[in-house]
Write a structure and sequence with these properties.
With about 500 residues, the protein is α/β, with parallel strands linked by helices. It contains 15 helices and 26 strands. Strands 2-9-1-10-11-12 form a 6-stranded parallel beta sheet, with helices on both faces. A 6-stranded mixed beta sheet has the order 15-13-16-18-26-25. Helix 1 runs parallel beside helix 2, helix 1 packs across helix 14 and helix 6 packs parallel to helix 7.
Length: about 500
């Protein structure tokens, strides 16, 4: 059997709950895989066969001990702005659509999602399904293929996750259950209260009240914990920065309006004071500046130019500050970008920041998605220390390097002094050797100590220790004995699901 994890809202911890469940089952020898029918995120991952999926499903797959695949996230929406998103279907670019047109394809997309779920279930036997956003968006019920319509198609037991840190947890749970359609509400077998701060014993009376009000069992109250797992989407950026402000090395990451794959820098956040700096803010005082990836290079370049970020970057270059561009940030550092209408909808040429003598062209609706392993080949004090690194490319457009040295064998570009370089390689700073190369140089320059991190402390998506820590924390606070029957061949019959305590109980909402 399988289980669906829905949420009372966005950012309540559905993705982490699914990862924790997958790891807990894996540790018990139960084969399992994650699934999310539709994800909206600019943080994505490239699978071994070159498919693009949401990074959360890749994390969950690694937690389950299996290789990520396109079937685990058959529909990925990547917002581009102006109510337009790129639709990635079964790992490949499908089309750019405005949201009103996207809904016209709901039935087809749901059919594709259900077929993908069945393939995952046939291959792995058990599946933990993640919903999207809040489950009780009543105005979307006719087209909600991530929650209600999917649940109606799969008819699986549901666990509802609520976020007590936001406050109003009783209203979250009671209101969500009350608003669920009549045929979906009885599928809810339990509630998990997430992100509790303090002594969970103090909420014992709250658990009793929730169960009394809803007739649904509370499977557990999970305390807030910080574990080094990649963030799912840009909502997480607001949570960053509070742990790193006292570290001597300061790194600025330009907070692009359409920033993508900022998970590239989450290991750096552990070892340096890392700020996500908005366009127009001063870049003075930073030891290094990074331009991250973006879903729309042309539009974000225009925003930065209007805000004066280009001038800030050129001043930093004059001060000898290292400047690194990843993917779209690499494209921006060049002389120009020639768009045939792929990025902006209108054919035009745009000047870049001119810090790298390269040029990028968007000539067709083609996307490069590939895992890579490359050796740093560039000059200077940073690239020369890196050695071989793993990563993945997700980009549209092609960049001509001109006469500059390569940053990596076969890819990227660097200035002759190596202090400005760009690459299409996401995941670069999830390699400990890359983190060490950068932070050792910056520490030497500042005259402060830095102890290189060992390979085991790198932030690879498949880091087993982090998943085990997450599972142990989850199992300590959640009644796994109440959940495990739903992953057994002879699990409880549907009429026994409600309440999760054996005898069926009617919802009181």
């Amino acid at each position: 059997m399988s289980l669906i994890v829905l949420g009372t809202a966005s950012h309540v911890g559905k993705s982490v709950t699914v990862a924790a469940l997958c790891r807990a089952l894996y540790r018990r020898g139960i084969p399992v895989a994650p699934f999310k029918s539709q994800n909206m995120s600019l943080n994505s991952y490239v699978t071994a066969d070159g498919s693009e999926i949401g990074i959360a499903q890749a994390v969950q797959a690694f937690a389950a001990g299996v290789e990520p695949s396109a079937d685990m996230n058959p529909i990925l929406l990547k917002p581009k702005g102006d109510q337009t998103s790129q639709v990635v279907l079964l790992g490949r670019p499908y089309k750019d659509v405005q949201i009103r047109d996207y809904y016209a394809e709901t039935d087809m997309l749901l059919s594709e999602a259900v077929a993908a779920f069945e393939r995952v279930r046939q291959r792995y036997g058990h599946v933990v399904v993640e919903g999207a956003g809040g489950a009780a968006e009543v105005n979307l019920y006719d087209r909600d293929i991530a929650n209600i319509r999917l649940a109606r198609s799969l008819r699986l037991p549901i666990v509802l996750v609520a976020d007590i840190e936001r406050g109003g947890v009783f209203a979250q749970v009671y209101g969500t259950l009350a608003l669920l359609p009549e045929d979906i509400r009885p599928l809810v077998v339990g509630v998990i209260v997430n992100k509790f701060r303090g002594d969970v014993g103090l909420f014992a009376s709250g658990v009793e009240k929730l169960e009394e009000l809803t007739g649904v069992r509370v499977f557990g109250v999970v305390p807030y914990i910080e574990i080094s797992l990649p963030s799912e989407d840009s909502l997480s950026i607001a949570d960053k920065g509070h742990r790193t402000t006292e570290r001597p090395i300061r790194i600025a990451i330009v907070r692009l309006p359409r920033i993508s794959n900022f998970t590239d820098f989450e290991v750096l956040e552990e070892y340096a004071s890392t700020d996500y700096v908005r366009p127009g803010a001063s870049l003075a005082g930073y030891d290094c500046i990074i331009l991250p990836g973006t879903k729309n290079t042309v539009e974000d370049l225009a925003v930065l130019n209007r805000a004066g970020t280009g001038d800030e970057l050129r001043l930093a270059r004059e001060r000898g500050v290292p400047i690194i561009g990843i993917c779209g940030g690499y494209q921006m550092l060049g002389r120009r970008i020639v768009d045939a209408g792929i990025e902006s909808g209108t054919a035009a040429e745009y000047p870049g920041f001119g810090l790298l003598d390269v040029a990028t062209a968007f000539t067709g609706y083609r996307k490069t998605t590939v895992q890579v392993r490359r050796r740093a080949a560039g000059p200077g004090p940073i690239l020369s220390r890196m050695g071989e690194v793993d990563g993945y490319e997700i980009h549209m457009g092609e960049t001509e390097r001109g006469g500059l040295p390569e940053a990596f064998a076969g890819e990227g570009a660097a200035t002759p002094d190596g202090l400005v370089f760009g690459t299409y390689m996401h995941g670069l700073f999830q390699n400990s050797c890359a983190v060490n190369a950068l932070l050792v140089y910056l520490s030497e320059k500042r005259g402060v100590p830095f102890e290189p991190i060992p390979n085991a402390d790198a932030g690879a998506l498949g880091a087993a220790a982090a998943y085990d820590d997450l599972a142990r924390h989850f199992e300590e606070h959640v009644d796994m004995d109440a959940i495990l029957p739903y992953f057994q061949e002879s699990g409880p019959a549907p009429e026994e699901w409600v309440g999760g305590r054996g005898a069926p109980r009617r919802h009181q909402v």
